[in-house]
Amino acid sequence: xxxxxxxxxxxxxxxxxxxxxxxxxxxxxxxxxxxxxxxxxxxxxxxxxxxxxxxxxxxxxxxxxxxxxxxxxxxxxxxxxxxxxxxxxxxxxxxxxxxxxxxxxxxxxxxxxxxxxx
Amino acid sequence: xxxxxxxxxxxxxxxxxxxxxxxxxxxxxxxxxxxxxxxxxxxxxxxxxxxxxxxxxxxxxxxxxxxxxxxxxxxxxxxxxxxxxxxxxxxxxxxxxxxxxxxxxxxxxxx
Lengths: 118, 111
Fold this sequence. Notes:
Chain A is built from no helices and eleven strands. In chain A, 0% of the residues lie in helices and 54% in strands. In chain A, the strands form two sheets. In chain A, strands 2, 4, 5, 6, 9, 10 and 11 form a seven-stranded mixed beta sheet that branches. Chain A has a four-stranded antiparallel beta sheet with strand order 1-3-8-7, with no helix packed on it. Chain A has strands at 3-7, 10-12, 18-25, 33-39, 45-51, 58-59, 68-73, 78-83, 92-100, 103-108, 112-116. Chain A starts with a strand and ends with a strand. By secondary structure, chain B is mostly beta strands. In chain B, 0% of the residues lie in helices and 50% in strands. Chain B is built from no helices and eleven strands. Chain B has strands spanning 4-7, 10-13, 18-25, 38-43, 50-54, 58-59, 67-72, 75-81, 89-95, 101-102, 106-110. In chain B, the strands form two sheets. In chain B, strands 2, 4, 5, 6, 9, 10 and 11 form a seven-stranded mixed beta sheet that branches. In chain B, strand 7 and strand 8 (75-81) form a beta hairpin. The termini of chain B are far apart. The model of chain B has no long low-confidence stretch (mean pLDDT 97). The A-B interface holds A 35, 37, 44-47, 50, 59, 61-62, 95, 102-106, 108-111 and B 1, 35, 37, 39, 41, 43, 48-51, 54-55, 58, 60, 92, 94, 96, 99-105.
């Protein structure tokens, strides 16, 4: 069974940094692209970052480019999201997702809540 | 950037009623490889989203066949043929032809 478990969320001040982790199990992690997607409280979904299975290429929307960095450790079956220069508008639940070919949002973790506030 | 416009934003239905949700894209979602990467998700309250439909019309494993997807190019539709109580929640279309973009969501409520 595919499992994705996110950790690392919490309360952080504006301008500070936070690193999220997602531990994957139940599948061969290094065979799949992975992504982060977020959801602000009471709002819709926003794609945040994607990374190829090898980690060699990464992709971001303009809203986080230059501030967020997605990475992975295939030996540890773990996906990361380093978030720098955090803003109040980054407050959201952050979900880890597995990107299957043709089914890019087939598997989701339960999410971890990040609150950016002074 | 691709914008997905979902209508209606809210849908009230009775159990057993058939309903449709529209998702319109600001540009064609037909990829150069011939696939159209348009998917539909359902998010029940307090839960992460779940995939219902991928590649416009393919039913995800385990999803009831009362759900169906159709469309091409820029216009897509999700149909529920006979709403059941477990179908309540927010429906999102999402495209992955040009990066990834989500629609704003359609909330399905009981009338």
